[in-house]
Amino acid sequence: MTQTPQIDTSKPHPARLYDWYLGGKDNYPPDEELGRRLTEFAPVIPVMARMNRAFTLRATRWLAGQGVRQFLDIGTGIPTEPNLHQAAQRLAPEARVVYCDNDPVVLAHAQALLHGTPQGALGYVQADARETSRILDEAAAVLDFGRPVALSLNALLHFLSDEDGAYRLVEELTARLATGSYLVLSHLTPDFHPEEASRKVHEMYRAGGVTMEMRTRERFARFFDGLDIVAPGLVAAEEWHPELGEPVEGQGGVHSGAYVGAARKP
After folding, report:
1. What are phi and psi of 43, to 5 degrees?
2. Exposed e or buried b for every residue in 208-239, given b needs 16+ CB within 10 A?
3. Can you tell me the distance from the alpha carbon of 247 to that of 251, in angstroms, rounded to the nearest whole number?
4. Which stretches are annotated as coiled coil (predicted)?
5. Could you report the per-residue pLDDT of 229-245, keeping only the tens digit for each?
6. Residues contacting residue 48 through CB under 8 Å, at least 6 positions apart
7. Alpha-carbon gap, residue 132 to 170, rounded angstroms
8. Tens digits of per-residue pLDDT, 57-112?
9. How many CB atoms lie within 10 A of CB 64?
């Protein structure tokens, strides 16, 4: 494995902030400081983060149940049990999974991500999500892009503005996927919260040096242009196949504040 890039601990990073929300230890004072400011304003944020993670695991199990055996997870975050490959390989031991993130802390933990079943295969790409060609080229060492792949971009795109190329990177990634592949997304939205509260959260992220682009349902739906959205459609995270389990402690009465969806490439 290549040498770990130097970690910038001077400002928050989304992966480490998410780790803090989930009660992890792989974060630094700037991550904790922003996390504490945000949760003081909105104490439900850690529960919302767990609800998003629960959706990721449900979606992975659902995809494995549809016969998908290859997964590309971009914006992986710091490992938290169970990981995506564990959910996939529990149902399909031969599943092949590639993770991708740009935070060196995630790279430092990559070995924890790369322990799977003997029948399957795992890989890790250290790259920014916008480096689509590099991600796909390196992932091809593990994945066969001539066959269906489930592409997951969960809790990632709201950290990229339109100007940063959020829509473009989805188009570039899905263009390389075979027919029968799936795109899976979760994304924060202002639609379920008072305008003033959404504006305040947006400003707090920005003040911490983190891009935050919460999108409406209409803007979220644009990511799925040209794809066939599967049931139950574009819904709140807690409404997407709840029968698949993953209960979240403290979820009662809490809204995830995120739209989620999955779509098949025709």
Report:
1. -60, -15
2. bebebbbbeeebbbebbeebeebeeebbbbbe
3. 8
4. none
5. 999 999 999 999 999 98
6. 254, 255, 256, 257, 258
7. 9
8. 999 999 999 999 999 999 998 878 788 999 999 999 999 999 999 988 888 877 76
9. 19
Burial of 193 (0-12, 13-18, 19+ CB in 10 A): middle
The 10 Å Cβ neighbour count of residue 41 is: 12
Question: By C-alpha distance, which of 162, 152, 30, 131 is closest to 87?
Answer: 152
Domain ranges of the chain: 16-264
Q: Which of 172, 193, 181 is nearest to 228 (CA)?
A: 181
What DSSP character marks residue 165? T
pLDDT of amino acid 5: 58
CA 18 vs CA 24, 35, 46, 164: distances in Å: 9, 9, 8, 21
In words, the CATH class of domain 16-264 is alpha beta
pLDDT at 250: 66
Q: pTM (2 decimals)?
A: 0.92
Both tokens assigned to 5: 């890039």
